[in-house]
Amino acid sequence: MKTNLLSGAGDVDMIRKGKENSFFAWMADISLLICLFLEIVFAHTIGSQASLVLFFCFTALLAFQKRRVYFSWWMWISALLIVWSVIVSFGWAIDRSASLGLVKTLIVTTAFFFFIFQYLLLRADLRRFLVIYVISALLMVCWLLFREYSLDWNTARLGYTDGVHPNSVGMISAFAFGMCIYLAEKKWKLLWLIPASVLLIAVALTMSVKSAALAGALLVSMLLIRYPRKWGWKLVAIGVGGFALFYAVILTENPLSTGVLSRVREVALFFLKGEGVGGSSVERMSLMQAAWARFQERPITGWGLGCFRLLEGSLGMYAHNNYLELLVSGGIPMALIYYAGQVGALIYAAHEIKRSRATDKTGKDAMLRQLTVVFYVMLVMRFVLDFAVVSYYERQDAIFIILLVAAAKQLNATRKENVDSTTGGEAFEN
Known about the structure:
Shape: globular
Order of helices and strands: EHHHEHHHHHHHHHHHH
Distance between the termini: 6 Å
Helix content: 55-70%
Number of helices: 15
Radius of gyration: 22 Å
Largest sheet: 2 strands, antiparallel
Strand order of the largest sheet: 1-2
């Protein structure tokens, strides 16, 4: 759904004109880049908060210039999640102030998603966002490497000494790595493999097992999306090659497996051979078991947002599992509300991809469909990663639902344009 501020033109006109550059459009690009960088490197500082406000302002000015504000069903789900979180905080939270603090974070995150949604549809150039995301991730990596270049990388983890969680650095680097692989087309665009290499090194230096697995999965997925023909044989070849590389680099002793990839080796040996303690795997399993036990005590109301760390068995930490963290925080209702948005985005996108293929006889929307599939894959991977991370209040970790919905909405608009061109009618979306 859209709201026209000053005009009655349709979505298709906006999509067609969205790529026009203007001062506000370029400032929205630049402020988004700065915001993504500062939000991870200098989180919770005046600088990061100012960059957030700056991005909001320039996106709002761009919306006013183009006379468009966009709304969507996911916003109602986000509002419902906030309402339930407030009810839990005042009704049953064992630490009201801590719970309300996370509610405030959810509100800011929802506002960020709202303006990202506006930006994506107003700019109507999803590849532009991929480029901005990659550049911001590359700046983050370069900054941290500059600050921590003298560390012993056999034991140190990238980001830790600068107060940036290595897992967050690894996850963002892995997602940006996948985007680089997608952007690396033929000819000069193969230069995207240069930042891809830097980001892959960053993933290794964080010693994050999840990030390493994500980077590998994204590499395979992006290659299959980019080159879909005979994907079955390609998948077999990639699987065989990947296993051989995994065995040679991880399961055998070498400078990498005993150095920067030592945590990956520990986890692999723990799950494959039962050797060692698997890094933090045992501790994480203990936290998940404790979270499940606390959830069973309050399955409907929960204990309050962020309050698991105050309960028995938490060791003063969060649950390291987004599903369990939501269940402990706000009970079954909170988990259902949160994942309703995620599942809804997948269903909506799948429907629009199918309808676009049926109506796009010339193939001019193939690139947009491919990008939608990229975001689809990334959101699915978030579902899997949520078993090992807590992401519901993280802005950069949970951004892929907005990317997918925006891509699907653009597919909807261009599909209506295709229908209009063949029927002579007027394309319009209610």
